[in-house]
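Incident log, support desk, overnight shift.

02:14 A customer reports that sequence design results differ from what the structure should imply. Their input is reproduced verbatim below. On-call engineer (initials T.W.) acknowledged and began investigating.
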């Protein structure tokens, strides 16, 4: 058995996204990837938007995702530490996944160190201070009182509304962003500011943008967006010395460097 010494990162699966058949296909592909990393993974970090929509009632959770949740449980049972930083689509993950799977939920971006290499991990949304409407929506979604009132709505109604809203937004904005210029990326702008405060950060790892990119912002610092599992099927891996952005080839089941 291979030594468990690798740290894996993935984001933006958007499981449950319309159409259901396509979501199920992508879920199976991700489970295939989880099976491939099972023997050498020490930790798995999911950096948000794992689900296209998720809301936990006290005794009810969204149906589906059986293969994915089972694969996570298997990883956890074999000793892999699993971490989730919720994104803007799965912001309402509460205590169900920690209780059932044993994963750890982190509500904010988090600094971590592996083998003396400094990381800052986050979903990567809400970094642009000028987007006041987005930040207002996030504040509303995180408000406990509003969450309590929302939980009073029957799941059939709340989930139908959430999927309608997500589908409408995706129709307007699309699922894949477009990369134009590094300095215009909010994640890059944010990282440059943070690096002035803490020059020891070597890796800024984000999701959210659905675009895999790896941008060097200093001699010893990079901003990496993990891409997604909608059209890119990309992920990150750290071996204790170097971080790599890689791609999972669905048709062949092979892993290549991005």
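02:41 Re-run completed on a clean worker. Output:
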């Amino acid at each position: 058995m291979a030594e468990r010494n690798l740290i894996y990162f993935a984001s933006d699966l958007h499981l449950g996204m319309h159409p259901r058949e396509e979501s199920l296909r992508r879920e199976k592909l991700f489970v295939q990837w989880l099976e491939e990393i099972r023997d050498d993974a020490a930790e798995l970090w999911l950096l948000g938007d794992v689900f296209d929509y998720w809301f936990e009632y006290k005794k009810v959770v969204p149906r589906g995702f059986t293969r994915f949740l089972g694969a996570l449980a298997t990883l956890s049972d074999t000793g892999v530490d699993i971490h989730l930083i919720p994104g803007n689509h799965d912001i309402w993950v509460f205590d169900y996944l920690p209780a059932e799977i044993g994963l750890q939920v982190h509500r904010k971006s988090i600094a971590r160190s592996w083998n003396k290499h400094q990381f800052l991990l986050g979903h990567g949304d809400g970094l642009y201070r000028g987007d006041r409407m987005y930040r207002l929506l996030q504040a509303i979604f995180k408000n406990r009182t509003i969450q309590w009132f929302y939980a009073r709505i029957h799941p059939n109604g709340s989930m139908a509304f959430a999927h309608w809203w997500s589908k409408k937004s995706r129709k307007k904005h699309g699922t894949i962003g477009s990369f134009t210029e590094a300095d215009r990326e909010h994640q890059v702008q944010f990282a440059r500011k943070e690096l002035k405060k803490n020059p020891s950060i070597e890796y800024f790892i984000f999701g959210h943008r659905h675009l895999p990119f790896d941008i060097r912002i200093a001699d010893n610092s990079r901003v990496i967006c993990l891409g997604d599992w909608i059209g890119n099927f990309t992920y990150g891996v750290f071996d204790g010395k170097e971080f790599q952005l890689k791609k999972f080839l669905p048709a062949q089941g092979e892993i290549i460097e991005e």
